[in-house]
Design brief:
It is a single chain. With 152 residues, this protein is an alpha/beta fold. It has one domain: D-tyrosyl-trna(Tyr) Deacylase, Chain: A (3-Layer(bba) Sandwich), CATH 3.50.80.10. Helix content is 20%, strand content 37%. Strands 1, 2, 3, 6, 7 and 8 form a 6-stranded mixed beta sheet that branches. Strands 4-5 form a two-stranded antiparallel ribbon. Strand 6, helix 2 and strand 7 form a beta-alpha-beta unit. The protein is globular.
Length: 152
C-alpha cells in the first residue's frame, strides 16, 4: 500500500458540492492499494500511522501522534481518501499508467477494511467516496507531508 500523510489544521472532501467528510486538526490520508496487498498490510500500516510522531509538542518538536495531538489525550481526526493515482507509473512517456494499483474491486475491499480498522482503533474517522470524483481541500500544517509504502 502507498499512503501520503498530510498533517492538517483542517481538511474536507466534497462530492458534487456536498461535503462528505471533514476534519479539523489531524491527518489527511491518501491511500492506494497495490496488487498483493492484504488485510495484514492494512493492519500494519494503520498501526504505523496512529503511532507516527508528527505533531509538535510544547517545545515545537515532532513528538506527538494523531492519537494525542495536544498532549492531553485529545485525538486528531483522520480523513481517509482512496487515491489510485499514487501508483502512477510515469516512466513511459507523458501519460501515466496505473497498472501498479490494485484492481478496483480489490482496492475497494482493502479501503473499506482499512476504514473499518481505523474506526475501531481510532474513532475520529471521516472518508471520501471510493471511485468518485472528489474535491479535496486542506490546510497543510507545517507543511508536513510524509509518503509511506508498506508491502506484504
Amino acid at each position: 500500500m502507498i499512503v501520503v500523510l498530510q498533517r492538517v489544521s483542517r481538511a474536507r472532501v466534497q462530492v458534487a458540492g456536498e461535503t462528505v467528510g471533514a476534519i479539523d486538526r489531524g491527518l489527511l490520508v491518501l491511500l492506494c492499494a497495490e496488487p498483493g496487498d492484504d488485510e495484514r498490510v492494512c493492519e500494519r500500516l494503520l498501526a504505523k500511522i496512529l503511532k507516527l510522531r508528527i505533531f509538535n509538542d510544547d517545545a515545537g518538536k515532532m513528538n506527538r501522534s494523531v492519537q494525542d495531538v495536544d498532549g492531553r489525550g485529545t485525538p486528531g481526526g483522520l480523513l481517509l481518501v482512496s487515491q489510485f493515482t499514487l501508483a502512477a507509473d510515469t516512466t513511459g512517456g507523458n501519460r501515466p499508467g496505473f497498472t501498479g494499483a490494485a484492481r478496483p474491486e480489490e482496492g475497494r475491499r482493502l479501503f473499506d477494511h482499512f476504514v473499518a480498522l481505523a474506526r475501531r482503533d481510532h474513532g475520529r474517522v471521516e472518508t471520501g467516496r471510493f471511485a468518485t470524483e472528489m474535491a479535496v481541500e486542506l490546510v497543510n500544517d507545517g507543511p508536513v507531508t510524509i509518503p509511506i509504502r508498506m508491502t506484504a
